[in-house]
Write a structure and sequence with these properties.
Strand content: 5-15%
CATH class of the largest domain: Alpha Beta
Number of strands: 9
Largest sheet: 5 strands, mixed
Number of domains: 3
Distance between the termini: 43 Å
Catalytic activity: a quinone + NADH + 5 H(+)(in) = a quinol + NAD(+) + 4 H(+)(out)
Helix content: 40-55%
CATH architecture of the largest domain: 3-Layer(aba) Sandwich
Order of helices and strands: HHHHEHHEHEHHEHHEEHEEHEHHHHH
Keywords: 4Fe-4S, Flavoprotein, FMN, Iron, Iron-sulfur, Metal-binding, NAD, Quinone, Translocase
CATH topology of the largest domain: Rossmann fold
Family: Belongs to the complex I 51 kDa subunit family.
Structural class: alpha/beta
Radius of gyration: 22 Å
EC number: 7.1.1.-
Number of helices: 18
Cofactor: [4Fe-4S] cluster; FMN
Length: about 425
């Protein structure tokens, strides 16, 4: 039986309070690194654990920290991406609402490792409860000496600030988030330079996801060997999976990285609703290409899903049963990406607008021969030709739907109506 680590406090009364967090061993990791480890040793420990970013890209966290120059004439910053705008994803919200001190300790340890004195938590403005509890937790941590000047009697000074976003999906992209933090319009930056060299205010900056940072104190206390002993060696550790859609037991599950997708959906989430069969699963938020039912025997980790033509992304697992029209789902997803595109890149701005018009026409029973080929052409024009991954995610999702469920698109065009509704 897998013992939860990241979610150990979510069902504990007052789990968001400092006293509860301390009673469970909270802030011991921070005290340990300040007392026993140099910043470089903490970076090496995280490298040894092979912790990969839980925000979507899966980049090795220790390696990212190692890119920050040790000697810099500007201050270093740590930014936490808590925007969580990916549909089907709610794991970071639960951590911030139910166990905010876990995030704060992760921020403090990480900031110590990279030499930062200031951290910003960029959180979506709709997360009102999470914002209030984070604010309260920061105040509690200051009062007890876990934040502020001379943390726990050391020479480490550290402050955490909250910045509320305004609901723009594009701010989940790290450089667009930095632009927003600086008070500019949120649009992705051209890279290089990368944030580690020139990020917030053109200073060295590390950007990590909430779940990624929450893993850090556990690695410090339990060791890199413990972390690597969970799941596959190339993508180890505990993982939070968000289950939603047409399943009996939707919710947030903490399980080992690499668990088979079929086991996750059928055993843990209870399988499809009564009288229904699973048609497909979106494994990592709507940016991840859909996987048909026959492909569900794949591990939920970065490498296995990539080999299967999809991606882990945010681990927002959305289950679709056989009562649902894939043309309708695909249309809604591309409408979302079109609406949330910042408009900076012509392929994304114009290509998604064109794709939405074609998909709406097909869904309405007004499709024409050549429409599917036109959609494929649009995917080719968008993919790999934009500043950020928004256009890539949209193109990959549309392309996968056309490959795996082409018969439904053809039926809409030939029958001049939706066969499901």
């Amino acid at each position: 039986m897998f013992e939860p680590v990241l979610l150990r406090n979510i069902d504990v009364p007052d789990g968001h309070r400092l006293s509860t967090y301390e009673a469970g061993g909270g802030y011991r990791a921070l005290a340990k690194v300040l007392r026993e480890h140099t910043p470089d040793e903490v970076v090496d420990l995280v490298k040894q654990s092979n912790l990969r970013g839980r925000g979507g890209a899966g980049f090795p966290t220790g390696m990212k920290w190692g890119f920050v120059p040790k000697l810099a004439d500007k201050p270093k910053y740590l930014c936490c991406n808590a925007d969580e705008g990916e549909p089907g994803t709610f794991k970071d919200r639960i951590i911030m609402e139910r166990d905010p001190h876990q995030l704060i300790e992760g921020l403090a340890v990480s900031a110590y490792a990279i030499g930062a004195k200031t951290a910003y938590v960029y959180i979506r403005g709709e997360y009102v409860t999470a914002i209030r509890r984070l604010e309260r937790a920061i105040a509690e941590a200051h009062e007890k000496g876990y934040l502020g000047t001379g943390v726990l009697g050391s020479d480490f000074n550290f402050a955490v600030h909250i910045h509320c976003g305004a609901g723009a999906y594009i701010c989940g992209e790290e450089t667009a988030m930095l632009e927003s933090l600086e008070g500019k319009r949120a649009q992705p930056r051209l890279k290089p330079p990368f944030p580690a060299a020139a990020g917030l205010y053109a200073s060295p900056t590390v950007i990590n996801n909430v779940e990624t940072l929450a893993c850090v104190p556990h690695i410090v206390m339990r060791g890199a060997h413990w972390f690597r002993g969970i799941g596959p060696d190339k993508s180890p550790g505990p993982k939070l999976y968000c289950l939603s859609g047409q399943v009996r037991k939707p919710g947030l599950y903490e399980l080992p990285m690499g668990i088979p997708l079929r086991q996750l959906v059928e055993d843990h989430a209870g399988g499809p609703l009564p009288g229904r069969r699973i048609k497909a699963v979106i494994p990592g938020g709507v940016s991840a290409p859909v996987i048909p039912e026959h492909g569900l025997d794949v591990g939920m980790d970065f490498d296995s899903l990539a080999a299967a033509g999809s991606m882990l992304g945010s681990a927002g697992v959305i289950v679709v049963d056989d009562s649902t029209c894939m043309v309708k789902i695909t249309t809604r997803i591309i409408e979302f990406f079109h609406h949330e595109s910042c408009g900076k890149c012509t392929p994304c701005r114009e290509g998604l607008n064109w794709a939405v018009k074609v998909l709406r026409r097909i869904e309405a029973g007004e499709g024409a021969p050549g429409d599917l080929e036109q959609l494929e052409m649009l995917c080719k024009g968008i993919f790999g030709n934009t500043f950020c991954a928004l256009g890539d995610g949209a193109a990959m999702g549309l392309r996968a739907a056309l490959v795996h469920f082409r018969d439904e698109f053809v039926a809409h065009i030939e029958e001049r109506k939706c066969p499901f509704h």
